[in-house]
Structure formats: structure tokens, C-alpha cells
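Lab notebook, bench 4. Still working through the backlog of constructs that have no structural model yet. Next entry is a single chain of 467 residues. Request: give me the C-alpha cells for it.
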Amino acid sequence: MLLYNSKSRKKEEFVPIIPGKISLYACGPTVYNYFHIGNARAFIFFDVVRRYFEFKGNEVNYVQNITDIDDKIIAQAIEEEIDFKLVADKYSDAFIQDCRALGIMPPTHQPRATDMLNSIIAYIAALVKNNHAYEANGDVYFDTASLASYGSLSGKKMEDQMVGARVADNPNKRNPTDFTLWKKSKPGEPKWDSPWGEGRPGWHTECVVMSQEFLGETFDIHGGGIDLLFPHHENELAQATALTGKPLANYWMHNGFLNVDGEKMSKSLKNFFTARDILKEHDPETIRFFFLSKHYRSPIDFNRELIEESGRAVANFYAALKSVDYLSNTGINVQNEPSNLSKLNDLEADFIAAMDDDFNTAKAIAVLFELSHIARINTAEVDERMAAATLLVKLGSVLGFFQNIGQRLAVNTIPIITDELIQLIISYRKSARENKDWALSDKIRNDLAKLGVELKDTPEGCTWSLK
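Model written out:
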């Protein structure tokens, strides 16, 4: 199995620390608002990572934190004129609800920063004691100059980090790149006692403490969005290295950016959507398909046409299952071994090969399309169609599809696209072409394309396939 390691900037063979046991940490939300669709991409992808490792027979210890104390939470509490804890609890509950709605499995552990203050304070004290951190006027900073390897994850050099737009000038810091481990509280802000006075922990320290608390000093995979690579993950790694002399994680995985209609998502551009907003308009599996149809490291553009196309693709999966009456036949052994069993075995091997190649979900989904096509072909053997449908559900479930299969297949509005029906429509189009009614011929082609059916005219006649 190959994983792209952000630290080495290349694909590497994945070798877990303990065979059969995977330790995985992925950054969770800072709970000051509902999470947006860019966050949803990361949460869905690492859910698939966890599912695939379990599919391959591994035990997965998946930790995802909740940051429930932060400047943004305090600002939101001031805006709503309520206590910061009420804000954190409100949006923590919403996060869990929305993840459940998206079909995301609960992590093995979901620690909250405020529950781990004693461990966080002890961690900071240890960094101060070994001269990797220092106190200044009630704040505690990590001394980046004390760690020769600082910048090794992101590839950024300290000398390139000049004071400016991204590095604020702070007279209390020894170096512009030094970052806060403990922040002195201002009047009216939440505060906890510490050796350096009343204050609260820094975000970078919260995460590294929570990850190591549940996974140990070094674990297999640390993940999150590419926007977290620097400075957040860099600063997590720096603290762990300074304290233990060991790498925090052996593999660092980051998913790509999400744009909306070709532009960066921004409230000022009025193109900012929460996952909750999108769930009001689209089925959870449609959203999941949209994200997984692209490789996780590639940037992705969110637009209405693509999300609607994803919905049609998911509907076609269910149409294939409905065409073999999957609900009635599930659990029934296939009567005869399909004559094309080797083809199905090859498709399952293709699916595994795609996922083993740095979680190439786009190629894995192509296998699901092929299986749905076999299940839908009326001329194929009944046993072969049912076997293809069964494999479709088995492999699709690895990507988080078919979680509410009974409910979805019970709905009578699922369009069943069969070869017989498409051939009938093709015959009407053929008649239109023979009568030189090109407008009707083009309309039939375009209308089918909207349903995800692509026609191709060849010297032997017209053929069709699903996009």
C-alpha cells in the first residue's frame, strides 16, 4: 500500500507501527460555528481512510479532537452575548449531528481541549524546562530557534519567515516564528490557573497533547486539510520533536483545497456554505460522491452542476440494485456460480488496487460504475447480475455508500435505467435522424446526458454508457 507523505513529498510504502493496528489522528473542528463544506471534505475523506483500513481487517484507533476554547469561540460568545462554553457546546453538538447526517462514523476517541487542561499545562511546563519554550509577560512561546529541524514538514525556512502580512510583530517573541503555547487571558475572557498565571492554551499545543494522549508519542498517520500543514501541523510536530526526540507521526496526509465556482470560499464573496446548508438541498451520499469522485489531494470546485451530476450517479447505483430486486434477494445465495466470475474478481482487485494507491477513490468509483452496469444488463445471467449487485454494495460500503439501503430502495421514485429502455429511446432517435429531424435527435441526446447517459454514434450503430 502506498501513501503520499506530505513530509517527504512523495509516495511511500505504508508500514504500520503495529501490524494489524492502525493509529490515526485527524484534526477536528474549532466549534464556533457550523462547519463548512471545505471541512466536510476532510471529515468524509478520513472517514473513508478509517473504513478502508477496517475493510482490510485492521483494528483502527481513530482520534479526532474538538477544539472548544479558542479566540474565535470567544469572539462568537461576545457576539451572541452568552458564555463561551454555551457556544462551544452548541456547535459541538451541531458538528456531531451533521457528521452523523453525512454518514461519518464516530471516531474511537473524540477528546475536547478543555477536558485536558492538566495534561496541556504539564506538556508546556516540560517544554519550558528543557529550554524549548519561554515565558514573557504571562504568555508562553515555543522557541523555534531551539529546534534545528523546525520547518521540516512544510519545507519552510525560518529565515524566510519575515515579519509582515503572515507573521505579526510581537516584542515579547525572541523570533518572529515563535508561536504561543499559553496565552494570558484578558479581562472577561475564560481563564485557567497555570504556573505562568491565568490564561488558556494555544491551539497547536491542544492538538499535539490530545493526539499523543490517545495514540502515544509516535503514531501512524496524522491528517487534515492542506491549509493546516503550516503552521498548525508544523508546530505540532515541533513540540513533539522537542519533547520526545521522536517523530509525531510516520505519515502526514493532507486533502486539497475546495473552491466554489472557481473562487476561494469566502463570506465576503457570498459563496460560503456550511455542510448543514448543503444537506438541506442534497442527499448525504450525493455530497460524499462529489468529494470522492476526485482524488483527495486534488483541488476540487464546488458548483451546482457537479453536485447534481453526483446525485444522478448515486441514483444510478440504486437503480442497478433495484433492477435485480436487491432488497428481496439479498441474503439469498447465488444459485449458480456466474460464468463471468473472473470478471467480478478482477473488478474487486481493481478496487483494492485503486485504494492501495494512495486512496484513489476516483478510480475505485469507476469500479462501482462497472458493477452497476453489469447488474443492470438484462441480457446477462441472473446470477451474474445479482453477484455484481452484491459486490457493488460490499465495495460501495467501504466508501460510505448504501448506509440506508433499505430506505433508499423502498422509494419508488428511483429511476431504473435499463438497457431495454435506453435501446427503445435510441430507436426513437434513430427514426428522428432518418427523418432528418436533427433538433429532436440532439434533444434526445442532451436529455439523456442530463440523466448521466452518454450516447456514442459508431459505424455499427449507437451505443450508450453511463458517465
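Notes after review: DSSP finds 16 helices and 15 strands in the chain. The radius of gyration is 26 Å. Flag for follow-up if needed.
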